[in-house]
Amino acid sequence: MLSTGALRAHLLAARLAGPVATSREESLRSYRLFAARDPRVLIGLDPEWTWKQRDLIELMARKCGVSADPHHVSGHDLIDPELTLTALDAFADRLAAAAQRRAPVLLGTGHPHRLLDFYAALADALSAAGCTVLTPAHGRCVDITTRFGLRTYNLEYVRRVAFVREPGTPRPGCATGAHTHSPMPVRLALAAAAEAGGPLPELVIGDHGWVCGAGQLGFEAIGLADTDDPALFVGEAEGVVSVVVPLDDAVRSGYYRPLTRYVLNRACLSQ
C-alpha cells in the first residue's frame, strides 16, 4: 500500500500540490467572476450565500492552501499537500460507503484527456464491489455555451466514464473529448436516467460541472478541483457538495495513478 509520506512526496514532485501550474492571476479572475455570479464560473451551482472576492480568497486559503493575502496577485498558486491528503481520505471513505451499500454511481469528467483513467479505475473497482455504474444518455446531444457561442456536443462514455465530444470527430478512446466546465452534460444524464425509470445515482463522481450540477440537484457528489475552481469548494462549504479534493486537475494522466491506488486501498476496493 502506498504510504501517506510517499503520496505526499509524489504530490509535490508531480506538482499536483505545492506550487501548481495554475497562476494566481487565473485564480483571482475566477474569484472575481464567481463573486459576480458569472455562470461560466458557477458551473451549475446556485450559491445560497453572498460571496465576495475576499470571502472566496479566505475560503480557498482554508480549503486549498492558497495565499490568504488579497494583495498577492501574481505567480504560481499553491495547494497544501496536507489538505489534499485529508480530502483524499474523505473521498475514499465516500467510495467505501457507496461500495458497502452497492449504490448506483455515475462518473463524468470535463478533463477526459487527463482524468479519464483515474475515474475509469474507480468505475471498475465500484463495479467489482457490486455497484451499478450508470451510463445514461449515451450518444445524446447536449448544447453547451462556450466562448465561441452555443455549440452542440455528444455525450459519450468510455470505460463507463462520461465526457463530451464534438460530433463528427474520430473516436480513439477519449483523445478527442472536449474540455468543459458546463453542468449541462450531468443534467442531461440525470434527466435521461429519470426518464428511463431505472436507478438514479446515489453518488456522482467527477469534476467541474459534473459535481456542481449534480450537487445542486440534490445528488451526493464528490470530485477534484483546482485553485481556479471555487464553485466546488463553495458547494462543499454550503453543504451541496460532499467532498472536494484540491489538486492540479491538468497534469499528465499517469501522475494520477498513485492517487488511484491510494484511494482504492483506503476504500478497501480492488483495482
TrEMBL record:
Pfam families: Phosphatase. InterPro entries: Phosphatase_SCO2771 (IPR031423). This is Phosphatase. It comes from Streptomyces gilvifuscus.
